[in-house]
Amino acid sequence: MSFRRRLPVFTALLVFSAAASFAKSGENQEPDPIYRFRSYLRIKTAHPNPDYAAAVNHLASYAATIPALRTRTLYLTSPEKPLLLVTWPGSDPSLPAILLNSHLDSVPAEPSKWTHDPFGGHVSEDDGKIFGRGAQDDKSIGMQYLEAIRNLIADSDYAPARTVHVSYVPDEEIGGSDGMGEFARSEEFGKLNVGFVLDEFRVFYADRSPWNLVIRAVGLPGHGSTMHDHSAVENLMKSVEVIMKFRENSFDLVKAGLAASSEVVSVNPVFLKAGMIMSEAVGGFVMNVQPSEAEAGFDIRMPPMADPEVMRKRIADEWAPSWRNMSYQITEKGPLRDASGRPLMTATDDTNPWWSLFEGGVASAGGKLGKPEILPSTTDARFVRQLGIPCLGFSPMKNTPILLHDHDEFLKEDVYLEGIRVYQHIIRWLSADYGQGRTAEKEGPICNYSLLGG
Ligand SMILES: *[C@@H]1O[C@H](CO)[C@@H](O)[C@H](O)[C@H]1NC(C)=O
Ligand SMILES: *[C@@H]1O[C@H](CO)[C@@H](O)[C@H](O)[C@H]1NC(C)=O
C-alpha cells in the first residue's frame, strides 16, 4: 500500500513542462531563474551585518509576480529581523499544510580567499558555475521553491489541495533562536497547521544536539619540585584520559564502518586551561608552582538515539567524579526529545506517509535519494521536530562538492535548474489531493518515530 504504486500519474506531465520554461529567450540572454538567483546572491546577507530587508524585498517582489501567492512579513523579535512568509493557499484548508523553509542569512566570506567576488553573482562562462556565498547554503533552495511554484502554476495550471507555505527566516547561522526558534513558538506558526516541513541539505532526518562540557579539577597546590598525589592537573588529566578513551571507542566504530560519524556521540577537546600566569616568567607562566585548579572544555554532539540520562550519569560518575575533586558544567544547546518525549527524528520509511510522498516526488523527477543521514551539526529543522512535526532536510544538489561555509561556494546552472524541476515534483506530490479525500495523513500516522539506525 505505498503511495508510489498508486500515484504514477504526474511523471510524464511534468518533464515536458519544466523543459519548456527554461528555454532561453535570446542568444546571449540567460534564463530568468538564473538571473533571479544571481540577484539574490548579490544581496549581502552574511553575518555580522545581514541586509535582511533587501533580501525580503527581493523575494517578496518576485513572489508578488506569481498569481495565487500571498506574502506576509513577520517581525517576531525586532524590526531588524524580518521573517518572510509566502503562502500558496490550497483548495482544502482543513488539510495540514506543508512548509518549505530556508534561511535568509549566510556565514561571512573572506573575499581575498575567493576566485570571484562572493557577493558578485559571478557565472563562469566555460562551466556554468555560479559563485556566491549562499549558493549552496541556502539561497539556492530559497529561490528554487518560488521558481518551482511559479512553474507549477504557469505551465500546468496546478492548484494544490493542501496549502503550501514558504518561509524565509533570519539568523539560522547564529543559532536560529530569533529566527525559526521564535517562529516555531509563535501563535502564527500554530495557525498555519503545519503537517510537514522541508528544510535545507541532502536528506537529513535528524540533527545532532550540541552539548558544551566544561570539567574542572581542584587539587593540592605545591612547589614545582615536589611529587605529591592529587594535584589539580593530575586529577584533570585522569578525566581527560577517560574521555579520550570514550572518544576513541566512538571513532573506532566509525572507522570500522559500523556507524556513520553523525550516528555516534562525538567528543572533542576544545580547550585546556591551567597554570599561573606571570608575564616575566617563561612563556608567561610561573614554572615552579603546581596550580590548584585546572579546566578542560569539550564539544559533544549527541545523536537523537543517544540517551541523555545515560550521558549525564557517565559525566557525573566517570568523567568528572566528585571523589576526584572534579566538578562540571553541561550546557545543552537543545533537547534530544520532542514535546511528547520521542527522539527528535523523522521516520524515513513507509511508516511515514510524508516520507513516501517525498520519495515518490523525487523518483518521479527521475532523481534518486542518497541514504538518509543525521546531520552532524544542527539546522533550524530541530525547532519544528521539537514540536513533533516531521521535517526532512533536503537540497537537490546533484554531483556537487559540498562547499557549505567554504571558499568558492558555487552551484552549477544546470544543477540549479534541475533542482527547480525536482521541487516541482516534490511540491506536487506533497500537496495534491489524490481523490476520494485521500491525502498523506489520512493514510496512516503522520510520523512514526521508529528508531532508525538505533
Ligand atoms: C580531594 O580534596 C580533599 C580535600 O582537599 C583531599 O583530602 C583529597 O585527597 C582530594 N582527593 C583527590 C582524589 O584529589
Ligand atoms: C511505527 O513503526 C513500527 C515499526 O515499523 C511499527 O511496529 C509501529 O506499529 C508503527 N507505529 C504506528 C503508530 O504506526
UniProtKB/TrEMBL annotation:
Q: Which Gene3D superfamilies match?
A: 1.10.150.900, 3.30.70.360, Zn peptidases (3.40.630.10)
* One annotated GO molecular function: aminoacylase activity
List, alphabetically, the GO terms of the cellular component aspect. cytoplasm
Q: Does this entry carry the keyword Signal? A: yes
The cofactors required by this protein are:
Zn(2+)
Key words of the record: Metal-binding, Signal, Zinc
Residues the record lists as binding Zn(2+) 2:
137, 173, 405
Q: Where does the secretion signal sit in this chain?
A: 1-25
Q: Where does Zn(2+) 1 bind?
A: 103, 137, 200
Q: Which domain of life is it from?
A: Eukaryota
The cofactor note from the UniProt entry for this protein is: Binds 2 Zn(2+) ions per subunit.
According to its UniProt entry, the protein's GO biological process terms are: amino acid metabolic process
What the entry lists under NCBIfam families is as follows:
Ac-peptdase-euk (TIGR01880)
The name this protein goes by in its record: Peptidase M20 dimerisation domain-containing protein
